[in-house]
């Protein structure tokens, strides 16, 4: 009975500690950054180290925290303001983060490019439809769950076809060569997409270009700390892979497609 009482007391203490605010002082204003601590790129321990202290010099990069000195960007200061205790939680300046934003960002026009490069540590809703919205959120474990069966199927199917054509030794050698070529192909494709498409700057006067850019890659820049949007959702990825499947199978034998489906799992799933 006594041990149970001690355990209950310890659990209550831990719960109280979890609920404590994480206060810091910046320019004589108090901020509770408890909710941000777990999202901090430098780790939660860094913020816990400065809890209760003045962080002016740390933010300007004039003093070290745990041996690291870092001058924070303008976006970091704006993010900090959202946790000020002298006002309610500050929402995004240009859009209502509680409303679907997919078809609203195009109206930002000239302000769009700067807006997506000012990170928002919250979560943005894209669609009014709950079903469409669910397709934009992907847990990391969904990626292997969706792609591994396809990878295994095409790998064995391609190897079997080449075995029938060339025999075991040549089939294994050919598969290895194709896998290597596929690695290089998808790496080059990913680099080209990032340079030419993902980081392409849309016409600030074009609603359609801005909306397309935001859907393709802009969201990743705006909400880099949204854990459910760190990987490429399977639904749009299937469309991309389907295109390559139809193209390659039309001009070549199906065994060559194994190299692309394997690499699609490795690359497309984390392309954003």
Residue ranges: pLDDT <50 for 5 or more in a row?
A: 5-17, 265-272
Number of domains: 2
- Counting helices, strands and paired strands, the structural category is mainly alpha
How many DSSP H or I helices? 12
What is the N-to-C succession of helices and strands?
Answer: HEEHHHHHHHHHHH
The best one-word shape is elongated
Task: Give the rounded overall mean pLDDT.
Answer: 79
Neighbour order of strands in the largest sheet: 1-2
Give the N-to-C terminal Cα separation.
54 Å
Topology:
Layout: H1 2-19, E1 23-26, E2 29-32, H2 34-37, H3 44-49, H4 56-59, H5 74-81, H6 112-116, H7 130-135, H8 142-166, H9 168-198, H10 207-222, H11 234-251, H12 257-267
Antiparallel strand pairs: 1-2
Helix pairs in contact: 8-9, 8-12, 9-12, 11-12
Report on the architecture of this protein:
- The protein has 12 helices and 2 strands.
- The protein has 272 residues and is mainly α.
- The chain has 2 domains: 89 residues, Cytochrome b5-like heme/steroid binding domain (Flavocytochrome B2, Chain A, domain 1), CATH 3.10.120.10; 141 residues.
- Strands 1-2 form a two-stranded antiparallel sheet.
- A hairpin with a 2-residue loop joins β1 and β2.
- α8 packs across α9, α8 runs antiparallel to α12 and α11 runs antiparallel to α12.
- The longest helix is centred in the last third of the chain and has 31 residues.
- It is elongated and about 75 Å long.
- The termini are far apart.
- The relative contact order is 0.10.
In short:
The protein has 272 residues and is mainly α. 56% of the residues lie in helices and 3% in strands. The chain has helices at residues 2-19, 34-37, 44-49, 56-59, 74-81, 112-116, 130-135, 142-166, 168-198, 207-222, 234-251, 257-267, and strands at 23-26, 29-32.
